[in-house]
Amino acid sequence: MKDAMKPESEAELSEMVRAASGGLSLRGGGTRGVAFGVGEVLETSGLAGVRLYEPGALTLVAGAGTPFVEVEALLAAERQRLAFEVPDMRGVLGREGVSTLGGVVAVNACGPRRVQVGSARDHLIGVRFVDGAGTVVKSGGRVMKNVTGLDLVKLLAGSHGTLAVISEVSFKLQAVPEVEVTLQAQVPLAEGLGLLRQALGSPFEVSGAAYGRFGALLRIEGMEASVRYRARALRELMGGDWVEVEGKALWATVRDGGGLGEGALWRVSCKPTAAGAVVAALAGVEHEATFDWGGGLIWIAVRGVADGGASVIRQALARVGHATLVRGSAALVFHPEAPGVAALSRALRAKFDPRGILNAGIMG
Known about the structure:
- The protein is an alpha+beta fold.
- It is built from twelve helices and 17 strands.
- The protein is globular, with a radius of gyration of 21 Å.
- Residues 144-150 have low confidence and may be disordered.
């Protein structure tokens, strides 16, 4: 097997892309498979290193190949964090490797805290990248008040390497809250999802709302006095037997694919009020589900069905959401795009990558 191309600088990356005679399959840290797309593997792990860290300005700039765990450790020393909770999918996908900042941006990573703080896209303030023609482009800035090019910055997040190869990213940071409290209640599914939606609609700033084999979970973060007041108010609002539990491992389970076992694994986004109906449509299929964001995100593991439950899930999601196959017969299968959206996506890819060489075919 031919070794992957591994540029050590942005200039070298640009030259490799410019000189490519065929498709390039992009790989960050290898946590989601060997690589996306078809063609020669281009690995970005050589573009590593923190370029700028200003704790007082809550700003971080680093190469796209920088391991996420190294960034976490650096920020933790200053009691800061990237608040959007990056999932670790190695367990559910059976992979190794290390998650990189560029990969985090490419998939627009997020976890249970998205309901309060958004995803990676919402914390990204600048990006440098090489497009499909080998041109180096800079968008955004290194400080939060610089809004130049923010739309382009957000466009790259979640593009799965189909528009450009990210070489450097700039993030705004968040201070680690003083206190974090998790409340748990053992209630039936329909009641639990209703309570989660009630909590999310309250003024008490919930930073996590999930339901699974562990029952219903709520998370509140902030200054200690505020957290204690909000936790007490939520108990009074919802009634029932909510107890305070250690939440770190529970939220990691929700974040990393819902803690579900074997089978086709789906990541379903839908209206929270439709979550129960979506899962009810699978009544005749062996499955298990974990609900995040009060049902706005559902992890569903389906077993014993030839198509992994695709036909049933996508029929149930008509007009209320979309589903991505994360683990199954194929490495990654996105929800079919509506004709208008598909045309727009093709036009964007043609603009950024006129030769069609970057992760070709993974997004239609």
